[in-house]
């Protein structure tokens, strides 16, 4: 367990960033007070009446080298910019504290693509490095973003506890999971005896959903805000690939245009391959389940692998030649005439100096003569026009 030394940014006449009726200096001092209140003797707060940047106080600081310095700030930009992140000295590698802190901040204040950033142009990270102190500066969202400010204000104790947890420090009035033997369900008890209900809550880096009675949902789909989410057996929100009942689903692994954990549908490019997740248009399939085999999408036909082959995962889209049910088919690899992966039909294809023809059902012509555009063509056993 670490000992925290907190520096509240700006102050002593410098309000820092301003927005939504607040100043940065006042807000980060309020957060520092809550971290201290919950962390007790494991937390030391630097003089909040001073501006640690302007007065160069780190250069005269004398603390144990094992202590962990965290400088508290809020960012400022356009009203749409949002999200928190961690800043360390450029050239330094993030330690386990930096990583844990960044993962927590990125979860409760999402929006940044890079959760840990190295900077060489900031005075205090350079001063701390010169003194040999372990230091990081944290931007707790944008004070100019109304949603970030709302989260910062309404969940200040959650933020304080998350900061403490990143350094292995339990809060003085620790919250805890409780098992209900009668209901055979989990709920989460706050230190004051209250509990979350009908809401999401991030605990220890994972997200959980609590129903209207306060029980953590598990092994179940829920719909929230127009998106579907799946809660695992341990009650945590699933991300990435998830097998549910008889099908694979893909839950968004990171926040972006679609929330983290939300079920994705339609064509999705995942780890270098295309997959089709039913967008409620294929009969016999549930919304979002991964499609395998041959299927129509719009005016085109596609084929996604029914099993893993040659290093290609099950469900990944096929391109090029493939043998299916005693016939050869060709799924567009790089021709400009139609989408990648779509089956060629009524289409000539030239490869290695040979011409092939894909008929109206997509099957390659072979061992036959057929009329195409008023002219008869003959194809040998290999499908080559002769």
Overall SS class: alpha+beta
Strand count, sense and barrel status of the largest sheet are: 6 strands, mixed
Number of strands: 26
Can you tell me the overall shape?
elongated
Proportion of helical residues: 10-25%
Strand order of the largest sheet: 4-1-5-8-6-7
Mean pLDDT: 94
Regions with little confidence, pLDDT below 50 for 5+ residues: none
Measured by DSSP, the beta-strand proportion falls in 25-35%
Number of helices: 5
**Rounded Rg:** 29 Å
Index terms:
six-stranded mixed beta sheet, elongated, 386 residues, two-stranded antiparallel ribbon, alpha+beta, 33% strand, 5 helices
Tell me what the structure shows:
The protein is an alpha+beta fold and 386 residues long. Helix content is 15%, strand content 33%. It has helices at residues 24-39, 96-108, 123-131, 146-154, 156-166; strands spanning 4-8, 18-19, 22-23, 43-45, 68-75, 85-89, 116-119, 134-142, 176-180, 185-189, 199-203, 206-210, 220-224, 227-231, 240-244, 247-251, 266-270, 273-277, 293-297, 300-304, 320-324, 327-331, 347-351, 354-358, 368-372, 375-379. The protein is elongated. The mean pLDDT is 94.
Produce the secondary structure layout.
Layout: E1 4-8, E2 18-19, E3 22-23, H1 24-39, E4 43-45, E5 68-75, E6 85-89, H2 96-108, E7 116-119, H3 123-131, E8 134-142, H4 146-154, H5 156-166, E9 176-180, E10 185-189, E11 199-203, E12 206-210, E13 220-224, E14 227-231, E15 240-244, E16 247-251, E17 266-270, E18 273-277, E19 293-297, E20 300-304, E21 320-324, E22 327-331, E23 347-351, E24 354-358, E25 368-372, E26 375-379
Parallel strand pairs: 1-4, 1-5, 5-8, 6-7
Antiparallel strand pairs: 2-3, 6-8, 9-10, 11-12, 13-14, 15-16, 17-18, 19-20, 21-22, 23-24, 25-26
Helix pairs in contact: 1-5, 2-5
């Amino acid at each position: 367990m670490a000992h925290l030394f907190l520096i509240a940014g700006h102050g002593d006449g410098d309000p820092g960033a301003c927005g939504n009726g607040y100043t940065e200096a006042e807000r980060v001092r309020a957060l520092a007070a809550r971290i201290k209140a919950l962390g007790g003797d494991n937390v030391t707060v630097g003089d909040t009446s001073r501006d640690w940047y302007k007065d160069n106080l780190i250069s005269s600081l004398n603390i144990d080298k094992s202590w962990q310095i965290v400088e508290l700030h809020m960012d400022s930009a356009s009203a749409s910019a949002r999200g928190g992140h961690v800043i360390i000295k450029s050239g330094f590698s993030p330690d386990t504290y930096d990583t844990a802190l960044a993962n927590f901040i990125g979860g409760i204040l999402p929006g940044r693509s890079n959760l840990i950033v190295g900077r060489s142009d900031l005075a205090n990270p350079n001063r701390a490095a010169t003194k040999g102190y372990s230091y990081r500066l944290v931007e707790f969202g944008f004070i100019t973003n109304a949603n970030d400010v709302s989260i910062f204000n309404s969940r200040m104790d959650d933020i304080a506890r998350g900061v403490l947890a990143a350094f292995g420090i339990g809060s003085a009035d620790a919250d805890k999971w409780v098992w209900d033997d009668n209901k055979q369900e989990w709920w989460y008890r706050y230190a004051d005896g209250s509990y979350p209900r009908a809401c999401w809550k991030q605990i220890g880096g994972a997200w959980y959903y609590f129903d209207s009675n306060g029980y953590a949902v598990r092994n179940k789909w829920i719909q929230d805000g127009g998106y579907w989410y799946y809660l695992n057996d341990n009650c945590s929100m699933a991300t990435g690939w998830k097998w549910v009942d008889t099908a694979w689903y893909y839950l968004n692994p990171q926040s972006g245009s679609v929330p983290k954990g939300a079920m994705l549908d339609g064509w999705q490019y995942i780890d270098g391959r295309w997959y089709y997740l039913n967008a409620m248009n294929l009969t016999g399939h549930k919304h979002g389940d991964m499609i395998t085999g041959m299927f129509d999408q719009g005016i085109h036909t596609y084929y996604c692998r029914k099993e893993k082959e040659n290093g290609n995962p099950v469900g990944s889209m096929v391109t090029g030649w493939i043998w299916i049910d005693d016939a050869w088919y060709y799924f567009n690899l790089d021709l400009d005439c139609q989408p990648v992966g779509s089956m060629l039909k009524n289409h000539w294809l030239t490869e290695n100096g040979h011409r092939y023809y894909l008929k109206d059902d997509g099957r390659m012509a072979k061992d036959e003569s057929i009329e195409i555009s008023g002219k008869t063509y003959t194809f040998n056993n290999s499908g080559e026009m002769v």
